[in-house]
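User: Could you go from structure to sequence for me? I need the amino acid at each position, not a summary. Structure tokens:
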């Protein structure tokens, strides 16, 4: 049989047995929660052992071919059906990832035993006459052909079934999201009807979000609230960012009080965001949130408010951060607004 043949046979047998030992860890096991970790590790180990099993079987077939132990057509059969059975074993293991599938286990168990046993029979002089008979080789390779073809219809069905289930789940999710948006809109319409004139703008926040489903209706209602002007001015004075983002949408009057409140807002925001020398330098990003202030600045400048001092303060604050594409865009936008 030769030393190389013995070594390859022992390696094949060891990895094959290792794969068998791993089967009970996942075969037919429908695990949930933490138990899925053990099942996954068992499945992964079985796949590794199976891979090495077929690697060594490939070596055995190569030795048999180079020693002219296979019949004339046997070399072609080994070249085609050896990798074919290995691929079928991989496909069978894929099928076994479904706990309801058990029959594919026959392929990774029986196919290696068939081919390794056949090659070892050819290598042993005492067994070679029996294994060299044309009928024996024909039977072995026909059975190998069955193993190589067996799992693929189920693989196609399972893959197609998973794709169909994904499509169905996506459709159900889309329908649920539509229903959820309609339900949220209906609830928020009732809340909108209950809003009283003069209510705090902060109470309007949930209705002003895009996800509320009533954002446009809420903005329209808030524009008709006479108290909105004074509230926005107070909120700007306290440095509330939401007030600046709402500024373009509330049909406000650009009074000196509003312009002054906006100036104080910019100075306060720039000061609070300014990195000090002892702070660790970090790149500017959208998390600093100056970008969301730009529509409000544009509205103020378009309505005659002098924002140059506030823009300069924001520019100076942004420059304390490390350079980034976001910072470059912000500085360019601020420069354009100063020139406005």
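Assistant: Here is the amino acid at each position, in order:
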């Amino acid at each position: 049989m030769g030393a190389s043949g013995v070594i390859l046979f022992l390696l094949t047998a060891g990895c094959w047995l290792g794969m068998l030992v791993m089967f009970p860890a996942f075969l037919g096991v429908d695990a949930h929660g933490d138990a899925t970790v053990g099942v996954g590790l068992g499945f992964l180990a079985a796949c590794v052992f199976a891979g090495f099993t077929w690697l060594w079987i490939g070596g055995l077939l190569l030795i048999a071919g180079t020693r002219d132990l296979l019949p004339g057509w046997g070399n072609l059969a080994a070249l085609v059906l050896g990798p074919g059975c290995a691929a079928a074993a991989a496909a069978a293991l894929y099928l076994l990832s479904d706990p309801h599938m058990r029959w594919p286990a026959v392929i990774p168990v029986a196919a290696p035993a068939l081919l390794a046993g056949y090659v070892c029979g050819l290598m042993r002089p005492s067994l070679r006459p029996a294994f060299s008979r044309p009928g024996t080789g024909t039977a072995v390779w026909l059975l190998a052909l069955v193993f190589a073809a067996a799992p693929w219809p189920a693989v196609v069905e399972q893959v197609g079934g998973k794709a169909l289930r994904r499509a169905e789940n996506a459709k159900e999710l889309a329908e649920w999201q539509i229903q959820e948006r309609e339900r949220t809109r209906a609830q928020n319409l009732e809340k909108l009807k209950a809003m009283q004139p003069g209510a705090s703008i902060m109470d309007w926040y949930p209705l002003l979000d895009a996800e509320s489903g009533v954002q446009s209706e809420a903005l329209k209602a808030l524009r008709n609230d006479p108290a909105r002007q004074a509230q926005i001015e107070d909120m700007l004075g306290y440095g509330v960012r939401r007030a600046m983002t709402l500024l373009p949408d509330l049909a406000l009057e650009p009074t000196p009080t509003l312009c002054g409140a906006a100036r104080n807002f910019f100075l306060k925001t720039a000061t609070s965001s300014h990195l000090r020398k002892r702070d660790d330098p970090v790149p500017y990003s959208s998390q600093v949130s100056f970008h969301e202030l730009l529509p409000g600045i544009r509205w103020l400048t378009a309505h005659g408010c002098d924002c140059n001092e506030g823009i300069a303060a924001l520019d100076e604050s942004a420059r304390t951060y490390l350079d980034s594409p976001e910072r470059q865009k912000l500085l360019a936008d601020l420069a354009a607004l100063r020139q406005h």
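One structural detail worth keeping in mind: Residues 3-150 form one domain.
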